[in-house]
Design brief:
The complex is a heterodimer of chains A (about 220) and B (about 250). Chain A is mostly helical and about 220 residues long. Chain A is about 80% helix and about 0% strand. In chain A, helix 2 packs across helix 3 and helix 8 runs antiparallel to helix 9. The longest helix of chain A has about 35 residues. Chain A starts with a helix and ends with a helix. The chains are: A mainly alpha (about 220), B alpha/beta (about 250). The structure holds adenosine-5'-diphosphate (ADP) and magnesium ion (MG).
């Protein structure tokens, strides 16, 4: 069983790579979609609403299969789409829908007087958003977004269904070649657990620091 | 003398509620004007329209050589207007994510394109003028109401606006902080800064204002120097209001 640890550990970087890429791309997309919905950009905000509804309303696994097995048949440029890319695209779109909603909620939670004060000094709408509203919304949304990041990390295990050998895939392979089923899956579970707990501890420290910063 | 600030026929409706019913005002350069009147009369709405925080349906606002016509005001006109007016809010409305110093710098760097070094220097000057030289690094949440409102005034002062608008700047304050904020406004007024202040502090209005405007029901009922309005008001409604507020 101890032999399993280095094997699984060697796949941690791939799992983190998929999670971090999906988080960064997902956050960027989510922020843009949240702003589009809040300021109700004509037409676009309706399209975004449908997008969010679809990606929240269907299972992640179905979405991953759609991207990996479905898209290459429909779009000729994507015939060589590998499992890792498909997983990142799927995770990005799926979680961007959730994160957009929590960022939107955080933006709406910023007091109206903050918009007005920023406008009154002569800022453009874009400046108001980027300099005053989004930083405040980010602080409110941070704990929820962090939870989505944790969700993303755990959800990368689904990439295994697209033939990607990441932590989960490696555990499955080890299990079937050594027949150490309980051991292999226990080890991989502990790996996820440690990664998530490390992040949570970091998150708590960060929140503590941010909390202190504004009451100085 | 010609008007520095000229407001003509300002009309604002919320649905079918006409809140401003044709406001005309002319402020001379350096004139300090106080607006008084019952609540719900449109005083805040008037100030907000002058900054286009509420968009008027009709009327023209001229500040110096800039004229903004409600009927065809473009985004760029509105930004230009806001650059020439500073607004002090009843609830301070400091940027919660920024320190006192950064609140004052924000308009200078983001809107007027000053360098960070220049803006820091100017902000520190203003901080000491408003008596908060040692609180530049504090966030709004850590300051008293009085301190926050002084920063709010400092933020508006930093813009070197042609017109400062004060919307009941002391109404949200605990009584203990009112004095320090009034003192600061008095000093700003002493510098002959053109200003429009909505206030319930009658004694204060009488002291600092060159002219008192009494509003009721979205209209200007009467205006004149403090001695006339407080000593010898012509309109029954003005007299009734002044009797009520003591
Ligand atoms: N955003 C708004 N939507 C609808 N009605 C409003 C809005 N703002 C102000 N009003 C109405 O306009 C009237 C004048 O309000 P206001 O300008 O705040 O008065 P004052 O400052 O003199 O107390 C009130 O009847 C108020 O209900
Ligand atoms: Mg008011």
């Amino acid at each position: 069983m101890l032999d399993l640890i280095p094997v699984i550990a060697s796949y941690v970087p791939l799992t983190l790579f998929m999670a971090i890429m999906s988080m960064i791309a997902g956050l960027a997309l989510a922020a843009v979609m949240a702003v589009i919905r809040v300021i109700k950009v004509p037409y676009l905000h309706r399209i975004v609403a449908v997008f969010i509804s679809f990606f929240r309303g269907t299972p992640l696994l179905v979405q991953l299969f759609l991207f990996y097995f479905g898209l290459p048949q429909l779009v000729s440029g994507l015939q060589n789409l590998d499992g890792v890319s498909a997983a990142i695209i799927g995770l990005t779109l799926h979680f961007s829908a959730y994160m957009a909603e929590s960022i939107r909620g955080a933006i709406l939670g910023v007091d109206r007087s903050q918009w007005e004060a920023a406008a009154s000094v002569g800022m453009t709408q874009k400046q108001v958003l980027t300099r005053i509203i989004l930083p405040q919304a980010a602080r409110t949304a941070a704990p929820t977004l962090m939870n989505y990041f944790i969700d993303i990390i755990k959800s990368t295990s689904l990439a295994f269904t697209l033939g990607v050998t990441e932590m989960m895939g490696a555990a499955q392979k080890e299990a079937s070649s050594t027949f150490l089923y309980p051991e292999a899956f226990l080890v991989v579970a502990v790996f996820y657990w440690v990664i998530v707990e490390t992040l949570s501890a970091g998150q708590r420290r960060l929140e503590h620091r941010l909390g202190k910063a504004v009451s100085r | 003398m010609s008007c520095q600030i000229d407001i003509k026929g300002l009309v604002k409706r919320f649905g079918d509620n006409t809140v401003l019913n044709g406001i005309d005002l002319c402020l001379q350069p350096g004139e300090r004007m106080a607006i008084i009147g019952p609540s719900g009369t449109g005083k805040s709405t008037l100030l907000r329209c002058l900054n286009y925080l509420d968009r008027p349906e009709e009327g023209r606002i001229t500040i110096g050589d800039l004229t903004v016509d409600a009927e065809n005001a473009q985004k760029s006109d509105i930004l230009a207007l806001r650059r020439r007016t500073g607004f002090v809010f009843q609830n301070y409305a400091l940027f919660a994510n920024k320190t006192a110093r950064a609140n004052i710098m924000e308009g200078l760097t983001t809107v007027r394109g000053w360098s960070k070094a220049q803006a820091t220097e100017r902000a520190d000057q203003i901080l000491s003028q408003i008596g908060l030289g040692d609180r530049g690094d504090s966030y709004p949440a850590a300051m008293s109401g009085g301190q926050q409102q002084r920063v709010g005034i400092g933020r508006a002062m930093a813009l070197d606006a042609e017109l400062l608008l004060f919307d009941e700047p002391t109404s949200a304050l605990d009584p203990e902080w009112v004095g320090e904020v009034l003192d600061l406004i008095r000093r700003v007024a002493d510098g002959r800064q053109t200003m429009l202040i909505v206030t319930h502090e009658m004694q204060f209005a009488r002291e600092i204002a060159d002219r008192i405007v009494f509003m009721e029901g979205g209209r200007i009922v009467e205006q004149g120097p403090p001695s006339q309005i407080f000593g010898n008001a012509q309109d029954d409604r003005t007299r009734a209001f002044l009797r009520r507020v003591g």
